[in-house]
Every structure is written in C-alpha cells, then in structure tokens.
Amino acid sequence: MTRIALTGALGRMGTLIIQEAAKVEGMQLVAGLDVIGAGRELPGGIRVRDASELEAALRESRTDVLIDFTIAKAAVENVCTAARLGINLVVGTTGLSPEQHAAMRKAIEGNCAAVISPNFSLGVNVFWKLVAQAAQSLKDYDIEVIEAHHNQKKDAPSGTALATVEAIAAALGQKEIVYGRQGVMPRGKEIGVHAVRGGDIVGDHTVLFAGSGERLEIKHQAHSRASFASGAVRAAAWVAGKSPGIYSMADVLAQR
Ligand SMILES: NC(=O)c1ccc[n+]([C@@H]2O[C@H](COP(=O)([O-])OP(=O)(O)OC[C@H]3O[C@@H](n4cnc5c(N)ncnc54)[C@H](O)[C@@H]3O)[C@@H](O)[C@H]2O)c1
Description:
The chain has helices spanning 12-22, 54-60, 72-84, 98-108, 122-137, 159-172, 226-239, 249-254; strands at residues 2-7, 27-34, 48-50, 65-68, 88-91, 113-116, 142-149, 177-179, 191-197, 203-211, 214-222, 245-247. The chain is an alpha/beta fold. Helix 3 packs parallel to helix 4. The chain contains eight helices and twelve strands. It binds nicotinamide-adenine-dinucleotide (NAD). The site of nicotinamide-adenine-dinucleotide has 26 residues, from helix 1 and strand 2.
C-alpha cells in the first residue's frame, strides 16, 4: 500500500489528483493539506488539515509519498519538511526561481527520492523529445516557443515552456532567450518565448521552426488537467520505495 499525502489538496490539480489516486489499487490518500478549507471532508473521509500542520500530518499519517501542487514558496517549504523526514516526493508546482530550485534540490539530495516535473502528461514528455529532435535537424531555423494558459495562472512563462526551451538549448548548445518583444527589436539567433493568458485554457505549447519558404510547428494541447493528475499519481506509485535521488517524468515513463 502506498500512503500518499497532498499539499494543495483543494486546488484545481489537488482535486483531480485525489480522484485519480482513488482509482489506483494499492494507493491510499492519508493526508490532505491546504491554506484554505481546514476541516473540509475529502473523498475517502479524511479531513483537510491546515498547511501549518504539515510535519505533524506526515508523521501521524505515516506518509510514504508527498505530492505537492501549490505555489513556489510553499513548495520549497513543503519539500524541505518532507525531505527532513525522509518522505519521498512528487513535485508539480511551477514558477520556482533558480534559487528556490537550488534550495529544493539541496534539501532532497541524500534524504529522499523525488520526481520533479513541470508537466506530468505523457504527451508533453513525448513533445519534449520531438522538439529536441527537430531542433537538431533545423539548426538554422528561427525558433519561437508560444504557450497559452488560463487567466488564473500565476507564473509566466509556464514551467513547461521553460523546460521546452531547455530541451532546445540542450540540443543546439546555449542560445540567447528573448521573452516577448516590444519596440524596435530586430530578430537575432535567439529563441523567442511568448505567454498568452486567457479564459480557461488548460495548457497549449507550440514550438515554431521557421525557415526560408517553410515552417514546422510542433504542438501539444491539454484538453483537461486529468492528463497531469494521472501522470502525477503514476509518478507517486513509481517513486515510493525508490532510493534517494532526483528523478524526472522521463525516468518514470522509461520503466513500464
Ligand atoms: N507539473 C504539472 O504537470 C502541472 C500541471 C498543472 C499545474 N501545475 C502547477 O501546479 C501548481 C498548482 O496549480 P493549480 O492549478 O492546482 O493551482 P490552484 O491555485 O488551483 O491550487 C493551488 C492550491 O495550493 C494551496 N496552497 C497554497 N499555499 C499552500 C501551502 N503552503 N500548503 C498547502 N497548500 C497551499 C492553495 O490554497 C490552492 O488550493 C501551479 O504551480 C501550476 O503551475 C503543474
């Protein structure tokens, strides 16, 4: 039995993760925490605990894996708490600064196993591979990364867009990155990155490779958050019992 706890239990992702986890045999939600709604009953009968009670909740519930889908600052604190207790992690929260990422990694190293990914969907993990392959074949084309998300999203560009840029840069060697353009800005050899925000768009990512007389677009569109939630639950089942280290969704998908 894999005993999971969830921070951000009442959020958009948290709500779906609870539903997905309930479908998995051998997985049990044993704690749900949030900064809102303490005492509210979650499916399965457990009650939301206030975020300030994380350490006590993890100890009392004998959690195997903590899944975090919150906000950047909270994610770092939650990861530090779980890592100190040797509890394995799935971290989906995005928008962390490089310093916050470094603090999170430092807390994890040697203490627990963690799957960290800005996108847990199967399709996006294939998209990253295709984009890297195209970048290698179209080295001299102009490259633009365009992402679109709902109007409640806090960070921009999305963690998925940033990971996409990293995949391209890794395929091509270091590249300059330009975030949006305004005023007189002649195009150089940079990767352009653009964030669109509106309505209830779940998450679109397009990479445009534009050359002379043609262009290639590679696009992923999430229709619902269920693809992220089922991936996160799959990662939780995978990481339970893994030895300490930082893993990606590619590691999870490599072992079927
Ligand atoms: N990795 C992925 O596949 C993936 C997919 C979708 C969203 N995300 C990211 O996940 C995060 C959450 O997204 P969302 O759409 O569910 O947001 P949301 O705003 O709907 O939910 C976040 C929840 O976290 C709670 N929260 C805030 N601080 C907390 C704390 N200290 N402890 C516990 N709970 C706390 C909020 O009250 C809220 O209920 C964002 O960073 C988003 O970009 C990642």
